[in-house]
Model the fold of this input.
Amino acid sequence: MNRALVGWLLRLYPRAWRARYGEEIEELLCSSRGDFRTIIDVLHAAVRERCSSATQPGLVMRATPGSILALSSQPSAFVPMAMSIAAFVVVLSAVAGIGAPPPHADEGAAAHIWQLLMLCQVPEIVWFACKWLRRAPRQTVWVLGIQLALALGAMLPVYLLRL
Done:
């Protein structure tokens, strides 16, 4: 990548951050191809560093959740959990409202909503695992276990009631 472009990109970061990480990032960027995605990633990281309310430089860059609760507050962890809970509520409210459907009847809207909720959380769980397993493996495995338990909990009434 061009040194002038690298210098311009590094000026987007806060001064304290540049003092601590500037030389390393400059070497890394100068040795890279400098494609469009790299530039966008550097711009995004610079904006995050500028917008962080942290007093220490590089706090956003080094952010690794220290607890399961902190990691589960990430959208890619929380959304599948919420979808499993919503699927569970959909099944229970449909059974409570109209009762279990007779065999070979049309599944109905509640069943379709349940299926969509369960299916659409799979890519989000895969994204979460790919993103966080290297950063915080122990916490990620725990959150994946919670996601699996909630998904199985949403499947349990469907299995027990043979819906």
Remarks:
- The chain has two domains: 3-51, 68-160.
- The mean pLDDT is 81.
- The helical segments are 3-10, 15-31, 36-51, 68-72, 75-98, 109-132, 137-160.
- DSSP finds seven helices and no strands in the chain.
